[in-house]
Structures are given as structure tokens and as C-alpha cells.
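Hey, quick one: can you model this chain's 3D structure?
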Amino acid sequence: MIFDGLRVVVTGAGRDTGRTLALAFAARGAHVTVSARDPAAAARTAETIGAGTAEAFACDLADPDSVRGFAAALATRTDRIDVLVNNGAAYLPGTGLDDASDEDIVNTIAGAATGTILLTRHLLPLLRASDRPDIVNLVSACGEVGHHRSEAHPAYYAAKHAQAGFAGILSHRLRAEGIRIISLYPPDFVQDDGPRGSGAPLTARSVVECVLFAVGQPRDCFIREFHFEQVRPGP
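Sure thing. Here's the predicted structure for all 235 residues.
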């Protein structure tokens, strides 16, 4: 699958799944813009990809000023964005409401929900300038109705339900413009490339390959959502 010349933006690309996504797009010919709360982490991802193929920016999705600054900087560097991958969202563990501070709760919801909405809003003009625009949302099974198998904090569940609602209405309203909204709802998954058999946990690599598959489809193919079976514990 070749993405020569595509301009791709990946948030939360300083490590883990975001980094893997950025490397995968770049390996297939895309020019990748990576962002992360930690500018040094974003820079390391860009350096791994190589000069001329990647750019790095700081963007704290929980800070509206940081989001607007990132979007404004992109507007000075490119006339279009072909793929926006909304990956950045801090995971918050803890099954009880008291397992996280007020600050952590606010930042979790602000980063995953408000930050995703604001960044998409401010980058929409650049996406509309593309002749093949895609918005990819790494949501999580925590955003599915009735899902309760993650050890994530209730605030993380709330944030992911907000992302899911945003993705759903955006898909409906932007369909007529040819803008594809592709949302993934993976259960908790592992970052390492271990065994990938039917009984093994889902890996980040498999999630990334789903993204690449959907983005690579012809423009008449609107894959709206990916839902995954979760490995169930034994009896």
C-alpha cells in the first residue's frame, strides 16, 4: 500500500501507537506531521522518520491555546491535509471515582474530547482543500455502549463516549463533502509485537494496519467504524 505524497497529521505520536502510526505512514511514502505534549518525544519520532519526510510540533490537546497554535503553525506550512489521525488521548487508570484527582479527570476529558473536537475544527479547512480527505479517530472500546471490561477510570470512559458521539455526527454531516470519518474501537491492547494468533491479545500493529487498510481504500468505500472481538478470560 503506497501513500506517496499524502500529507498526514498524527497526534500523540511521541510514543506507542501514535509513533507506530507515524512510522507506518512514512514508510509508505507519506509526509508526516507528528505532535505530542512532550516536544522532545515528537522530535524523536520525526528524527527516526528522517528530515524532509516528517515535522514535529508540541501540542497539548488539553490546552485550547496549544491546539490553536498547532493548527495555525500547520496552516503556514501546507495548503492541505489529506489524513488527520486523532490518536492523542491520555489513558487514565482506576475503577473508582476516587482513583484519580480532579486535575487528572479534567485533563483526561479535555484532551480526548475537547482537544479532538477543537483540533478537527481548526484543521477542517486544510482537510477540505484535499481531494481525498480522511479523519481517523482512535476511540477505544471504552466508547462503545455497554462496554465495561477495561480497568480505565470512569472519566476515560466518558471522554471516549464523547469522541464516539463526535465521530458519529461528523461522519453523517461531512459525508456529502467526500470527507471520510474512520473510527476504531479497539479493546485494551498491547504495544509489543508478540504472537498474533486468534487467542492472543490485540496488538498496536494490528490496529495500525486497520488504519492503513481503511485509508488506502478507493474513495467510494466509506468504512465508518472498526469494532473488535475481545479475548475473553478462560472459565
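One thing worth noting: Helices lie at 16-27, 39-49, 64-77, 102-128, 154-174, 204-215.
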